[in-house]
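Thread: Newbie trying to understand structure tokens

Hi all, I'm a second-year student working on a class project, and my supervisor (Dr. K.) asked me to get a predicted structure for one chain before our next meeting. I've only ever worked with sequences, so writing a 3D structure as a token string is new to me. If someone could post the tokens and maybe explain what I'm looking at, I'd be very grateful. Here's the chain:
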Amino acid sequence: MQEQYRTVARAGVHESEINRSRFLCSLAPAATEEEAQDFVARVRKEHPTASHNCFAYVIGADASVQKASDDGEPGGTAGVPMLQMLMRREMRYVVAVVTRYYGGVKLGAGGLIRAYGGVVGEALDALGSLTRQRFRLATIHVDHQRAGKLENDLRATGRDVREVWYAEAVTMEIGLPDGDVEAFTAWLADTTAGTATLELGGEAYGDATA
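---
Reply by user tm_fold:
Sure, no problem. This is what the structure looks like when written as tokens:
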């Protein structure tokens, strides 16, 4: 797995006008290819009278899935420059749809490439990005007496506390960067006088802390 990846901070729309044509770039995070395709379908439904609804998406921390569509624009002038902009910005798990309302002035192949790639770049600047870091999922089991202080200490030190369950003992699921596992195990033993247990699980991504 990749150590980290960047994605768009939130969904949103950015509009530009180029030679009387309106270009609306709709951007959104997408966890799967199906989510990306659903987003494309929603945007097309919102703009049924648009001249074109071109799209590009990148799924996977390693960009394993990349798709683009010119949606009737000359081949390679819309979807590909959109995809290239997403890749140049190192964006992952993201989908972009550029809706064009033709304004009567032809842009030519070079103009289209600049327009479609450019509006995606502008939308990324407007909406911002965030970094997701690879974590090892870990489960802590601790007694009720120490649970409250331990949870406070975890949060105070910036740990990624994902879930807390209360039963006969208290179970906490946290995310740990791989490089921190050894030091954290020692810290946990010291903090709980050796009474807490730690089980390492699979891997996931979470928001990277500054």
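A couple of things are worth pointing out once you decode it. Strands lie at 4-8, 12-18, 21-29, 52-59, 65-69, 94-101, 129-142, 160-166, 170-176, 197-207. The CA atoms of residues 52 and 64 lie 26 Å apart. Feel free to ask follow-ups in this thread.
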